[in-house]
Amino acid sequence: MNITKHRDDGVQSPNLSPGVGPSPILRLLRYLDRLAASAFYGKVTVSFQNGRVCDVRTEQTKKLDEL
User: Fold this and answer.
1) pTM of structure
2) Is the separation of the CB atoms in 5 and 13 below 8 Å?
3) Contacts of residue 64, Cβ cutoff 8 Å, sequence gap at least 6
């Protein structure tokens, strides 16, 4: 799948060229997929700076019946 590197609005699209690492957004999506697959229960906060992901925080909590 080929997607252009730059769009007119200044936001970079994912670069899926062979030999090039995944974009931060694709990495974030894979991380969220792993959390969902592991039945994660908690909060995920994604912080952006200058239109880019700069910080991802997870807070895992326990349900009352799991204590």
Assistant:
1) 0.60
2) yes
3) none
